[in-house]
Amino acid sequence: MKIAHIFNEVKRKDNDTKKFISPQEFDVDYISKNKGYSNKNYQINSDYDKLYYEALQPIKDGNIISKYDEDKINNFLEKIDNEVLMISGDFWGIQKFIFDSLSSKNASKILRSRSAMVQLITYALTDIIKEMFESEVVLFGAGKFLILAKPDNYEEKLSNLQKELDKYFIKNFFGQNGVVLSYKMTTKENINNQNSEKMKKDLIALGKQNELKKLNKFDIQNLEDDNLVIDIFKEVKKDDEICGFCNKRVAISKIKDEKVCSICKNQINLGQKLTTNRYMKIFKNSKVVDSIEILKYKDTIYYASFYNNETKLYDKKGDIFDISNKKYDPKLGIAKWPLSSFVAKENDDIISFEKLQENSNGLMALKADVDKLGDTFREFYMTSFKKFNRLSRELEFFFGNYVPYLIENNDEYNKKLYVIFAGGDDLFLIGEHRTIIKFAKDIREKFYEWTLKKATLSMGLVMFKHSTPITYISDLADEAEARAKNVTYPNQKITRDGIDIFGISMKFDEFINIEKEWQKVVNELEKSDKDTTSFYYRLIELSQMREDMKDNPLNSMWKSKLNYIFKRNLNKVDENIYKIVSSLIEKYGKKLHPSIFLTIYKNRDKINQNKGENR
Ligand SMILES: [Zn+2]
What we know:
Layout: H1 67-79, E1 83-92, H2 94-99, H3 107-132, E2 135-141, E3 144-149, H4 154-173, E4 178-187, H5 188-192, H6 197-216, H7 228-234, E5 253-255, E6 258-260, H8 262-276, E7 279-284, E8 292-297, E9 300-307, E10 319-322, E11 345-346, E12 349-350, H9 353-357, E13 363-370, H10 373-383, H11 385-408, H12 413-416, E14 417-423, E15 426-432, H13 433-450, E16 457-464, H14 470-485, E17 498-501, E18 504-507, H15 508-525, H16 533-547, H17 558-569, H18 575-588, H19 593-614
Parallel strand pairs: 16-17
Antiparallel strand pairs: 1-3, 1-4, 2-3, 5-6, 7-9, 7-10, 8-9, 11-12, 13-15, 13-16, 14-15, 17-18
The structure holds zinc ion.
Zinc ion binds at residues 243, 245-246, 249, 260-261, 263-264.
Protein backbone atom coordinates (compact mmCIF):
# COMPACT_ATOMS: atom_id res chain seq x y z
CA MET A 1 0.00 0.00 0.00
CA LYS A 2 1.41 3.36 -1.02
CA ILE A 3 0.89 6.19 1.43
CA ALA A 4 0.45 9.63 -0.04
CA HIS A 5 2.23 12.57 1.49
CA ILE A 6 -0.02 15.52 2.32
CA PHE A 7 2.46 17.93 0.78
CA ASN A 8 1.47 16.51 -2.57
CA GLU A 9 -1.71 18.49 -2.02
CA VAL A 10 -0.03 21.73 -1.11
CA LYS A 11 0.27 24.32 -3.84
CA ARG A 12 3.75 24.91 -5.13
CA LYS A 13 5.05 28.38 -4.50
CA ASP A 14 6.15 28.90 -8.12
CA ASN A 15 2.88 27.76 -9.59
CA ASP A 16 -0.66 28.85 -8.83
CA THR A 17 -2.36 25.71 -10.02
CA LYS A 18 -2.44 22.63 -7.88
CA LYS A 19 0.10 20.10 -8.88
CA PHE A 20 -0.42 16.48 -8.07
CA ILE A 21 2.71 14.48 -7.93
CA SER A 22 2.30 10.76 -8.08
CA PRO A 23 1.80 9.51 -4.54
CA GLN A 24 5.00 8.55 -2.91
CA GLU A 25 5.71 6.47 0.07
CA PHE A 26 5.66 8.39 3.32
CA ASP A 27 9.26 7.64 3.78
CA VAL A 28 11.42 9.07 6.50
CA ASP A 29 14.08 6.68 7.71
CA TYR A 30 12.55 6.81 11.16
CA ILE A 31 9.20 5.34 10.25
CA SER A 32 8.85 1.62 10.48
CA LYS A 33 8.20 -0.01 7.17
CA ASN A 34 6.21 -2.67 8.97
CA LYS A 35 2.73 -1.35 8.52
CA GLY A 36 0.59 -4.33 9.21
CA TYR A 37 -0.11 -4.42 12.87
CA SER A 38 -2.88 -6.52 14.23
CA ASN A 39 -1.81 -7.68 17.64
CA LYS A 40 -3.72 -5.71 20.18
CA ASN A 41 -3.57 -7.01 23.69
CA TYR A 42 -5.32 -4.00 25.08
CA GLN A 43 -8.21 -1.94 23.79
CA ILE A 44 -7.08 1.65 23.73
CA ASN A 45 -9.97 4.00 23.63
CA SER A 46 -8.28 7.21 22.66
CA ASP A 47 -7.70 9.58 19.82
CA TYR A 48 -4.04 8.89 19.86
CA ASP A 49 -4.85 5.34 19.02
CA LYS A 50 -2.83 4.40 15.98
CA LEU A 51 -1.60 7.95 15.68
CA TYR A 52 1.02 8.43 12.98
CA TYR A 53 0.97 4.84 11.91
CA GLU A 54 -2.33 3.28 11.06
CA ALA A 55 -3.58 6.82 10.98
CA LEU A 56 -1.51 7.34 7.88
CA GLN A 57 -3.01 4.35 6.09
CA PRO A 58 -5.10 5.73 3.24
CA ILE A 59 -8.69 4.75 2.44
CA LYS A 60 -7.41 3.46 -0.85
CA ASP A 61 -4.06 3.13 -2.50
CA GLY A 62 -2.40 6.51 -2.82
CA ASN A 63 -5.29 8.50 -1.37
CA ILE A 64 -4.59 11.38 0.98
CA ILE A 65 -7.48 10.68 3.36
CA SER A 66 -6.63 8.39 6.26
CA LYS A 67 -8.88 5.42 6.81
CA TYR A 68 -8.77 6.26 10.50
CA ASP A 69 -10.32 9.71 10.05
CA GLU A 70 -12.78 8.44 7.47
CA ASP A 71 -14.06 5.66 9.74
CA LYS A 72 -14.14 7.79 12.85
CA ILE A 73 -16.20 10.60 11.36
CA ASN A 74 -18.49 8.25 9.43
CA ASN A 75 -19.16 6.05 12.47
CA PHE A 76 -20.10 9.05 14.54
CA LEU A 77 -22.42 10.51 11.90
CA GLU A 78 -24.23 7.17 11.61
CA LYS A 79 -25.14 7.30 15.27
CA ILE A 80 -26.85 10.69 15.26
CA ASP A 81 -29.77 12.48 13.62
CA ASN A 82 -29.32 15.46 11.37
CA GLU A 83 -28.12 18.02 13.91
CA VAL A 84 -24.47 18.12 14.91
CA LEU A 85 -22.91 20.25 17.62
CA MET A 86 -19.36 21.43 17.04
CA ILE A 87 -17.46 22.16 20.27
CA SER A 88 -14.08 23.81 20.10
CA GLY A 89 -11.58 24.31 22.90
CA ASP A 90 -8.68 26.70 23.02
CA PHE A 91 -6.03 26.80 25.76
CA TRP A 92 -4.98 30.44 25.90
CA GLY A 93 -1.94 31.94 27.63
CA ILE A 94 0.29 28.94 26.92
CA GLN A 95 3.44 31.11 26.88
CA LYS A 96 2.57 32.47 30.31
CA PHE A 97 1.76 28.99 31.55
CA ILE A 98 5.21 27.77 30.54
CA PHE A 99 7.49 30.73 31.25
CA ASP A 100 5.86 33.02 33.76
CA SER A 101 7.96 34.02 36.80
CA LEU A 102 10.19 31.02 36.42
CA SER A 103 13.59 31.63 37.95
CA SER A 104 16.37 30.79 35.48
CA LYS A 105 18.22 28.81 38.11
CA ASN A 106 15.52 26.18 38.21
CA ALA A 107 14.17 26.51 34.70
CA SER A 108 15.66 23.34 33.24
CA LYS A 109 13.80 21.15 35.73
CA ILE A 110 10.37 22.43 34.88
CA LEU A 111 10.12 24.00 31.40
CA ARG A 112 9.68 20.84 29.39
CA SER A 113 7.15 19.41 31.81
CA ARG A 114 4.99 22.55 31.81
CA SER A 115 4.88 22.31 28.05
CA ALA A 116 3.78 18.65 28.33
CA MET A 117 1.24 19.63 31.00
CA VAL A 118 -0.59 21.87 28.51
CA GLN A 119 -1.10 18.84 26.29
CA LEU A 120 -2.17 16.61 29.20
CA ILE A 121 -4.73 19.11 30.48
CA THR A 122 -6.16 19.46 26.96
CA TYR A 123 -6.36 15.68 26.71
CA ALA A 124 -8.22 15.35 30.02
CA LEU A 125 -10.61 18.05 28.92
CA THR A 126 -11.57 16.22 25.73
CA ASP A 127 -12.25 13.18 27.89
CA ILE A 128 -14.56 15.20 30.16
CA ILE A 129 -16.54 16.35 27.12
CA LYS A 130 -16.67 12.82 25.74
CA GLU A 131 -18.26 11.73 29.02
CA MET A 132 -20.91 14.43 28.66
CA PHE A 133 -21.93 13.82 25.07
CA GLU A 134 -22.16 11.14 22.45
CA SER A 135 -19.21 12.57 20.54
CA GLU A 136 -16.03 12.20 18.57
CA VAL A 137 -12.85 14.25 18.76
CA VAL A 138 -11.96 15.25 15.22
CA LEU A 139 -9.04 17.60 15.80
CA PHE A 140 -6.55 17.64 18.64
CA GLY A 141 -3.22 19.30 19.16
CA ALA A 142 -1.18 22.19 20.57
CA GLY A 143 -3.81 23.22 23.12
CA LYS A 144 -6.71 23.17 20.67
CA PHE A 145 -9.43 20.67 19.89
CA LEU A 146 -12.64 20.25 17.94
CA ILE A 147 -15.33 17.78 18.94
CA LEU A 148 -18.43 16.73 17.02
CA ALA A 149 -21.25 15.95 19.43
CA LYS A 150 -24.87 14.95 19.61
CA PRO A 151 -26.67 18.07 20.85
CA ASP A 152 -28.15 17.20 24.20
CA ASN A 153 -28.86 19.92 26.77
CA TYR A 154 -25.62 21.40 25.55
CA GLU A 155 -25.97 25.03 26.56
CA GLU A 156 -26.26 24.20 30.23
CA LYS A 157 -23.63 21.48 30.17
CA LEU A 158 -21.04 23.61 28.42
CA SER A 159 -21.76 26.68 30.48
CA ASN A 160 -21.24 24.66 33.67
CA LEU A 161 -18.04 23.19 32.34
CA GLN A 162 -16.75 26.64 31.41
CA LYS A 163 -17.48 27.90 34.92
CA GLU A 164 -15.66 24.99 36.50
CA LEU A 165 -12.66 25.51 34.24
CA ASP A 166 -12.53 29.22 35.00
CA LYS A 167 -12.56 28.47 38.71
CA TYR A 168 -9.81 25.92 38.30
CA PHE A 169 -7.50 28.25 36.36
CA ILE A 170 -8.11 31.21 38.64
CA LYS A 171 -7.45 29.15 41.74
CA ASN A 172 -4.34 27.38 40.48
CA PHE A 173 -2.85 29.73 37.91
CA PHE A 174 -4.10 33.17 38.97
CA GLY A 175 -6.22 33.47 35.82
CA GLN A 176 -3.18 34.01 33.63
CA ASN A 177 -4.32 31.22 31.38
CA GLY A 178 -7.35 29.07 30.82
CA VAL A 179 -9.46 27.30 28.27
CA VAL A 180 -12.33 28.82 26.32
CA LEU A 181 -15.06 26.61 24.96
CA SER A 182 -17.09 27.65 21.91
CA TYR A 183 -19.85 25.86 20.10
CA LYS A 184 -21.93 26.05 16.95
CA MET A 185 -24.71 23.89 15.55
CA THR A 186 -24.35 22.47 12.10
CA THR A 187 -25.78 19.53 10.18
CA LYS A 188 -24.73 16.08 9.12
CA GLU A 189 -25.13 17.16 5.53
CA ASN A 190 -22.70 20.06 6.01
CA ILE A 191 -20.12 17.82 7.66
CA ASN A 192 -20.40 15.38 4.79
CA ASN A 193 -19.97 18.16 2.29
CA GLN A 194 -17.48 20.34 3.99
CA ASN A 195 -16.78 22.28 0.80
CA SER A 196 -20.23 23.80 1.00
CA GLU A 197 -20.68 27.49 1.73
CA LYS A 198 -23.00 26.61 4.63
CA MET A 199 -20.31 24.63 6.40
CA LYS A 200 -17.72 27.34 5.84
CA LYS A 201 -20.12 29.84 7.36
CA ASP A 202 -20.58 27.67 10.45
CA LEU A 203 -16.85 27.21 10.89
CA ILE A 204 -16.19 30.92 10.53
CA ALA A 205 -18.90 31.62 13.14
CA LEU A 206 -17.30 29.11 15.50
CA GLY A 207 -13.89 30.74 15.02
CA LYS A 208 -15.31 34.21 15.64
CA GLN A 209 -17.01 33.10 18.84
CA ASN A 210 -13.72 31.64 20.02
CA GLU A 211 -11.82 34.89 19.37
CA LEU A 212 -14.50 36.90 21.14
CA LYS A 213 -14.47 34.64 24.16
CA LYS A 214 -10.71 34.84 24.37
CA LEU A 215 -11.01 38.62 24.55
CA ASN A 216 -13.45 38.38 27.44
CA LYS A 217 -11.64 35.49 29.06
CA PHE A 218 -13.05 35.08 32.52
CA ASP A 219 -16.58 36.18 32.83
CA ILE A 220 -16.06 37.28 36.43
CA GLN A 221 -19.71 38.16 37.00
CA ASN A 222 -20.72 34.64 36.28
CA LEU A 223 -18.41 33.16 38.83
CA GLU A 224 -20.70 32.08 41.62
CA ASP A 225 -18.11 31.59 44.29
CA ASP A 226 -17.69 35.12 45.67
CA ASN A 227 -14.72 34.19 47.78
CA LEU A 228 -12.82 32.66 44.94
CA VAL A 229 -10.42 35.47 44.14
CA ILE A 230 -9.87 36.37 47.76
CA ASP A 231 -9.35 32.79 48.80
CA ILE A 232 -5.90 32.65 47.25
CA PHE A 233 -4.73 35.24 49.73
CA LYS A 234 -6.76 33.97 52.66
CA GLU A 235 -4.76 30.80 52.61
CA VAL A 236 -1.49 32.66 52.98
CA LYS A 237 -0.29 32.96 56.55
CA LYS A 238 2.19 35.42 57.90
CA ASP A 239 5.17 33.15 58.16
CA ASP A 240 4.52 31.31 54.91
CA GLU A 241 7.34 31.00 52.48
CA ILE A 242 7.14 31.39 48.74
CA CYS A 243 8.02 28.68 46.23
CA GLY A 244 11.49 29.11 44.76
CA PHE A 245 10.40 27.80 41.37
CA CYS A 246 7.36 29.88 40.47
CA ASN A 247 7.99 32.66 43.02
CA LYS A 248 4.24 32.90 43.48
CA ARG A 249 2.55 30.21 45.47
CA VAL A 250 3.02 29.18 49.05
CA ALA A 251 5.67 26.52 49.49
CA ILE A 252 4.62 23.23 51.05
CA SER A 253 7.85 21.27 51.00
CA LYS A 254 11.40 21.23 49.73
CA ILE A 255 13.35 19.76 46.83
CA LYS A 256 17.09 19.79 47.56
CA ASP A 257 16.94 22.84 49.88
CA GLU A 258 14.68 24.73 47.49
CA LYS A 259 11.19 25.54 48.76
CA VAL A 260 8.47 24.31 46.46
CA CYS A 261 4.68 24.66 46.12
CA SER A 262 2.43 21.70 45.36
CA ILE A 263 1.89 22.67 41.71
CA CYS A 264 5.59 23.10 40.93
CA LYS A 265 6.38 19.90 42.80
CA ASN A 266 3.89 18.04 40.64
CA GLN A 267 5.42 19.58 37.51
CA ILE A 268 8.98 18.75 38.57
CA ASN A 269 7.96 15.15 39.22
CA LEU A 270 6.38 15.02 35.79
CA GLY A 271 9.59 16.34 34.17
CA GLN A 272 11.62 13.67 35.91
CA LYS A 273 9.22 10.91 34.90
CA LEU A 274 9.07 12.02 31.30
CA THR A 275 12.82 11.67 30.96
CA THR A 276 13.10 8.26 32.58
CA ASN A 277 10.06 6.26 31.43
CA ARG A 278 8.86 4.82 28.19
CA TYR A 279 5.13 4.45 28.91
CA MET A 280 2.40 6.59 30.37
CA LYS A 281 -1.11 5.74 31.44
CA ILE A 282 -3.86 8.33 31.88
CA PHE A 283 -6.68 7.37 34.21
CA LYS A 284 -9.12 9.00 36.57
CA ASN A 285 -10.27 9.00 40.18
CA SER A 286 -8.32 6.27 41.92
CA LYS A 287 -4.89 7.57 42.59
CA VAL A 288 -2.00 5.14 42.41
CA VAL A 289 1.28 5.62 44.24
CA ASP A 290 3.58 8.14 42.63
CA SER A 291 1.17 9.38 40.00
CA ILE A 292 1.00 12.91 38.59
CA GLU A 293 -2.14 14.98 38.90
CA ILE A 294 -3.29 16.43 35.58
CA LEU A 295 -6.63 18.12 36.18
CA LYS A 296 -9.35 18.26 38.79
CA TYR A 297 -12.92 18.62 37.57
CA LYS A 298 -15.65 18.50 40.21
CA ASP A 299 -15.12 15.11 41.86
CA THR A 300 -13.05 13.72 39.04
CA ILE A 301 -9.28 13.87 39.11
CA TYR A 302 -7.18 12.89 36.12
CA TYR A 303 -3.82 11.29 36.78
CA ALA A 304 -0.87 10.02 34.79
CA SER A 305 1.36 7.21 35.91
CA PHE A 306 4.61 6.13 34.30
CA TYR A 307 6.21 2.77 33.59
CA ASN A 308 9.19 1.22 31.96
CA ASN A 309 7.86 -2.29 31.97
CA GLU A 310 5.13 -3.33 29.55
CA THR A 311 3.60 -6.00 31.75
CA LYS A 312 2.49 -3.59 34.49
CA LEU A 313 0.71 -1.41 31.97
CA TYR A 314 -2.37 -3.56 31.86
CA ASP A 315 -2.99 -3.88 35.59
CA LYS A 316 -5.51 -1.09 35.64
CA LYS A 317 -7.86 0.63 33.23
CA GLY A 318 -6.64 3.71 31.41
CA ASP A 319 -5.29 5.11 28.14
CA ILE A 320 -1.80 3.87 27.44
CA PHE A 321 0.87 5.63 25.42
CA ASP A 322 4.42 5.11 24.36
CA ILE A 323 5.91 8.54 25.20
CA SER A 324 9.41 7.82 23.90
CA ASN A 325 10.96 8.77 20.57
CA LYS A 326 11.64 5.14 19.81
CA LYS A 327 10.25 3.41 16.77
CA TYR A 328 6.71 2.22 16.99
CA ASP A 329 6.60 -1.42 18.00
CA PRO A 330 3.89 -3.28 16.04
CA LYS A 331 4.07 -6.27 18.41
CA LEU A 332 2.98 -4.14 21.34
CA GLY A 333 0.53 -2.04 19.41
CA ILE A 334 0.77 0.83 21.91
CA ALA A 335 -0.21 4.24 20.58
CA LYS A 336 2.61 6.75 20.34
CA TRP A 337 2.51 10.15 21.99
CA PRO A 338 6.15 11.30 22.18
CA LEU A 339 5.57 13.60 25.15
CA SER A 340 9.00 12.94 26.61
CA SER A 341 10.53 14.97 23.76
CA PHE A 342 14.21 15.52 24.50
CA VAL A 343 16.24 17.17 27.25
CA ALA A 344 19.97 16.71 27.86
CA LYS A 345 20.60 14.62 30.95
CA GLU A 346 23.40 13.61 33.25
CA ASN A 347 22.91 10.46 35.28
CA ASP A 348 19.15 10.53 34.72
CA ASP A 349 18.94 14.07 36.04
CA ILE A 350 17.96 16.96 33.75
CA ILE A 351 21.02 19.08 33.09
CA SER A 352 20.88 22.64 34.44
CA PHE A 353 21.36 25.53 32.03
CA GLU A 354 24.40 26.56 34.03
CA LYS A 355 25.97 23.17 33.36
CA LEU A 356 24.96 23.33 29.71
CA GLN A 357 26.91 26.55 29.43
CA GLU A 358 30.14 25.05 30.79
CA ASN A 359 33.07 25.02 28.37
CA SER A 360 31.24 27.34 26.09
CA ASN A 361 30.86 31.05 25.83
CA GLY A 362 27.17 31.09 25.67
CA LEU A 363 23.84 29.48 25.31
CA MET A 364 21.56 30.09 22.40
CA ALA A 365 17.80 29.87 22.03
CA LEU A 366 16.19 28.93 18.76
CA LYS A 367 12.60 29.52 17.76
CA ALA A 368 11.42 28.30 14.40
CA ASP A 369 8.14 27.90 12.63
CA VAL A 370 6.77 27.05 9.24
CA ASP A 371 6.44 29.90 6.76
CA LYS A 372 3.02 30.81 5.45
CA LEU A 373 1.47 27.58 6.63
CA GLY A 374 -1.57 29.40 7.96
CA ASP A 375 -3.00 29.75 4.46
CA THR A 376 -2.62 26.06 3.76
CA PHE A 377 -4.07 25.14 7.13
CA ARG A 378 -7.04 27.42 6.67
CA GLU A 379 -7.81 25.99 3.27
CA PHE A 380 -7.78 22.43 4.57
CA TYR A 381 -9.65 23.29 7.75
CA MET A 382 -12.46 24.89 5.77
CA THR A 383 -12.73 22.20 3.14
CA SER A 384 -11.96 18.98 4.94
CA PHE A 385 -11.33 17.93 8.53
CA LYS A 386 -9.82 14.79 7.10
CA LYS A 387 -7.22 16.63 5.06
CA PHE A 388 -6.62 19.10 7.85
CA ASN A 389 -5.99 16.19 10.20
CA ARG A 390 -3.54 14.64 7.82
CA LEU A 391 -1.60 17.87 7.53
CA SER A 392 -1.48 18.56 11.25
CA ARG A 393 -0.65 14.95 12.05
CA GLU A 394 2.23 14.88 9.59
CA LEU A 395 3.58 18.17 10.90
CA GLU A 396 3.15 16.95 14.47
CA PHE A 397 5.11 13.90 13.46
CA PHE A 398 7.94 15.99 12.06
CA PHE A 399 8.26 18.40 14.98
CA GLY A 400 6.99 16.35 17.89
CA ASN A 401 8.51 13.01 17.02
CA TYR A 402 11.18 13.22 14.36
CA VAL A 403 12.99 16.28 15.79
CA PRO A 404 13.47 14.77 19.29
CA TYR A 405 14.41 11.47 17.67
CA LEU A 406 17.06 13.21 15.58
CA ILE A 407 18.49 14.93 18.65
CA GLU A 408 18.43 11.81 20.79
CA ASN A 409 20.35 9.83 18.19
CA ASN A 410 23.04 12.37 17.43
CA ASP A 411 25.99 12.26 19.82
CA GLU A 412 26.61 15.97 19.70
CA TYR A 413 23.01 17.14 19.86
CA ASN A 414 22.06 14.84 22.69
CA LYS A 415 24.62 16.28 25.08
CA LYS A 416 23.98 19.92 24.40
CA LEU A 417 20.36 20.52 23.45
CA TYR A 418 17.18 20.96 25.45
CA VAL A 419 13.78 20.95 23.74
CA ILE A 420 11.29 23.27 25.41
CA PHE A 421 8.60 22.83 22.83
CA ALA A 422 8.41 20.84 19.62
CA GLY A 423 5.05 20.21 18.05
CA GLY A 424 2.30 21.65 15.90
CA ASP A 425 4.24 23.67 13.39
CA ASP A 426 6.90 25.17 15.62
CA LEU A 427 9.96 24.60 17.65
CA PHE A 428 11.66 26.18 20.66
CA LEU A 429 14.90 24.82 21.96
CA ILE A 430 18.00 25.97 23.72
CA GLY A 431 21.53 24.71 23.96
CA GLU A 432 25.22 25.37 23.48
CA HIS A 433 25.38 27.99 20.72
CA ARG A 434 27.51 26.16 18.14
CA THR A 435 25.38 23.05 18.46
CA ILE A 436 22.23 25.13 18.04
CA ILE A 437 23.55 26.66 14.81
CA LYS A 438 24.54 23.28 13.43
CA PHE A 439 21.13 21.91 14.34
CA ALA A 440 19.38 24.92 12.75
CA LYS A 441 21.07 24.26 9.40
CA ASP A 442 20.40 20.57 9.66
CA ILE A 443 16.70 20.82 10.48
CA ARG A 444 16.08 23.49 7.86
CA GLU A 445 17.40 21.17 5.16
CA LYS A 446 15.53 18.13 6.44
CA PHE A 447 12.26 19.99 6.64
CA TYR A 448 12.60 21.35 3.12
CA GLU A 449 13.26 17.89 1.77
CA TRP A 450 10.46 16.33 3.77
CA THR A 451 7.87 18.85 2.56
CA LEU A 452 8.76 18.09 -1.07
CA LYS A 453 10.43 21.51 -1.26
CA LYS A 454 7.11 23.28 -0.79
CA ALA A 455 7.54 24.72 2.67
CA THR A 456 10.33 26.48 4.52
CA LEU A 457 11.16 27.43 8.09
CA SER A 458 12.18 30.80 9.48
CA MET A 459 14.25 30.95 12.65
CA GLY A 460 15.27 33.39 15.32
CA LEU A 461 18.45 32.67 17.27
CA VAL A 462 19.51 34.63 20.33
CA MET A 463 22.47 34.33 22.68
CA PHE A 464 21.96 34.41 26.43
CA LYS A 465 23.61 33.62 29.73
CA HIS A 466 22.25 30.88 31.96
CA SER A 467 21.15 33.49 34.48
CA THR A 468 18.91 35.37 32.00
CA PRO A 469 15.22 35.12 32.93
CA ILE A 470 13.50 32.61 30.68
CA THR A 471 10.52 34.86 29.77
CA TYR A 472 12.98 37.43 28.50
CA ILE A 473 14.76 34.83 26.34
CA SER A 474 11.45 33.66 24.94
CA ASP A 475 10.44 37.23 24.04
CA LEU A 476 13.78 37.97 22.40
CA ALA A 477 13.59 34.77 20.36
CA ASP A 478 10.03 35.66 19.28
CA GLU A 479 11.19 39.06 18.10
CA ALA A 480 14.13 37.52 16.24
CA GLU A 481 11.82 35.01 14.56
CA ALA A 482 9.47 37.80 13.49
CA ARG A 483 12.40 39.69 11.94
CA ALA A 484 13.54 36.53 10.15
CA LYS A 485 10.10 36.25 8.59
CA ASN A 486 10.36 39.77 7.23
CA VAL A 487 13.54 39.27 5.27
CA THR A 488 12.93 40.65 1.80
CA TYR A 489 14.90 40.79 -1.38
CA PRO A 490 14.73 43.57 -3.91
CA ASN A 491 12.77 42.50 -7.02
CA GLN A 492 11.46 39.39 -5.33
CA LYS A 493 8.26 38.48 -3.63
CA ILE A 494 8.63 37.73 0.06
CA THR A 495 9.70 34.14 0.22
CA ARG A 496 10.74 33.94 3.88
CA ASP A 497 13.16 31.07 4.66
CA GLY A 498 14.97 33.60 6.84
CA ILE A 499 17.28 33.55 9.81
CA ASP A 500 17.88 36.21 12.43
CA ILE A 501 21.04 35.75 14.41
CA PHE A 502 22.84 38.27 16.68
CA GLY A 503 20.03 40.64 15.76
CA ILE A 504 20.80 40.51 12.03
CA SER A 505 18.29 39.10 9.56
CA MET A 506 19.04 37.53 6.22
CA LYS A 507 18.00 34.76 3.91
CA PHE A 508 19.15 31.43 5.23
CA ASP A 509 21.06 30.79 2.00
CA GLU A 510 22.99 34.00 2.51
CA PHE A 511 24.00 32.92 5.99
CA ILE A 512 25.24 29.60 4.68
CA ASN A 513 27.17 31.20 1.79
CA ILE A 514 28.78 33.74 4.09
CA GLU A 515 29.75 31.05 6.57
CA LYS A 516 31.37 29.00 3.83
CA GLU A 517 33.40 31.90 2.41
CA TRP A 518 34.26 33.27 5.81
CA GLN A 519 35.59 29.90 6.92
CA LYS A 520 38.25 30.11 4.18
CA VAL A 521 39.40 33.38 5.69
CA VAL A 522 39.44 32.02 9.21
CA ASN A 523 41.34 28.87 8.22
CA GLU A 524 44.07 30.98 6.70
CA LEU A 525 44.30 33.61 9.44
CA GLU A 526 44.25 31.15 12.31
CA LYS A 527 47.33 29.40 10.94
CA SER A 528 49.53 32.06 12.47
CA ASP A 529 49.67 32.46 16.24
CA LYS A 530 48.96 36.19 15.95
CA ASP A 531 46.02 37.52 17.93
CA THR A 532 43.36 37.89 15.28
CA THR A 533 40.63 39.27 17.56
CA SER A 534 41.39 42.95 17.03
CA PHE A 535 41.48 42.34 13.28
CA TYR A 536 38.02 40.73 13.46
CA TYR A 537 36.67 43.71 15.38
CA ARG A 538 38.04 46.01 12.66
CA LEU A 539 36.15 43.97 10.07
CA ILE A 540 32.95 44.45 12.05
CA GLU A 541 33.49 48.22 11.88
CA LEU A 542 34.27 48.16 8.17
CA SER A 543 31.28 46.07 7.23
CA GLN A 544 29.12 48.45 9.26
CA MET A 545 30.61 51.32 7.25
CA ARG A 546 29.74 49.50 4.04
CA GLU A 547 26.21 49.09 5.36
CA ASP A 548 25.89 52.80 6.18
CA MET A 549 27.33 54.13 2.94
CA LYS A 550 24.00 55.53 1.87
CA ASP A 551 23.77 57.68 5.00
CA ASN A 552 27.29 59.01 4.89
CA PRO A 553 29.50 59.08 1.77
CA LEU A 554 32.60 59.06 3.96
CA ASN A 555 31.81 55.45 4.72
CA SER A 556 32.89 54.52 1.21
CA MET A 557 36.39 54.68 2.64
CA TRP A 558 35.94 51.20 4.06
CA LYS A 559 37.77 49.76 1.05
CA SER A 560 40.94 51.75 1.41
CA LYS A 561 40.89 51.11 5.15
CA LEU A 562 40.59 47.40 4.56
CA ASN A 563 43.49 47.54 2.13
CA TYR A 564 45.54 49.40 4.72
CA ILE A 565 44.96 47.02 7.61
CA PHE A 566 45.72 44.05 5.41
CA LYS A 567 49.02 45.56 4.27
CA ARG A 568 49.90 46.78 7.72
CA ASN A 569 49.06 43.70 9.79
CA LEU A 570 48.74 40.78 7.50
CA ASN A 571 51.23 41.34 4.72
CA LYS A 572 52.15 37.72 4.46
CA VAL A 573 48.56 36.64 3.91
CA ASP A 574 47.53 35.36 0.53
CA GLU A 575 46.17 38.04 -1.79
CA ASN A 576 43.21 35.78 -2.37
CA ILE A 577 42.06 36.12 1.26
CA TYR A 578 42.00 39.89 0.91
CA LYS A 579 39.79 39.48 -2.15
CA ILE A 580 37.37 37.20 -0.31
CA VAL A 581 37.05 39.57 2.66
CA SER A 582 36.65 42.57 0.39
CA SER A 583 33.92 40.95 -1.68
CA LEU A 584 32.13 39.62 1.43
CA ILE A 585 31.94 43.14 2.86
CA GLU A 586 30.98 44.60 -0.49
CA LYS A 587 28.21 42.11 -1.05
CA TYR A 588 26.83 41.51 2.43
CA GLY A 589 27.71 44.46 4.66
CA LYS A 590 26.69 43.82 8.26
CA LYS A 591 25.29 40.40 7.40
CA LEU A 592 28.89 39.34 7.86
CA HIS A 593 28.71 40.18 11.58
CA PRO A 594 27.23 36.91 12.87
CA SER A 595 29.97 34.84 11.25
CA ILE A 596 32.66 37.13 12.66
CA PHE A 597 31.08 37.05 16.12
CA LEU A 598 31.00 33.28 16.06
CA THR A 599 34.73 33.17 15.29
CA ILE A 600 35.49 35.61 18.11
CA TYR A 601 33.46 33.43 20.51
CA LYS A 602 35.25 30.34 19.35
CA ASN A 603 38.67 31.87 19.93
CA ARG A 604 37.63 33.03 23.37
CA ASP A 605 36.51 29.52 24.21
CA LYS A 606 39.86 28.18 23.04
CA ILE A 607 41.73 30.61 25.26
CA ASN A 608 39.55 29.72 28.25
CA GLN A 609 40.05 26.04 27.67
CA ASN A 610 43.84 26.46 27.41
CA LYS A 611 43.79 28.38 30.66
CA GLY A 612 41.84 25.58 32.22
CA GLU A 613 44.33 22.97 31.06
CA ASN A 614 47.31 24.94 32.34
CA ARG A 615 45.82 25.45 35.74
ZN1 LIG B 1 5.71 26.95 42.68
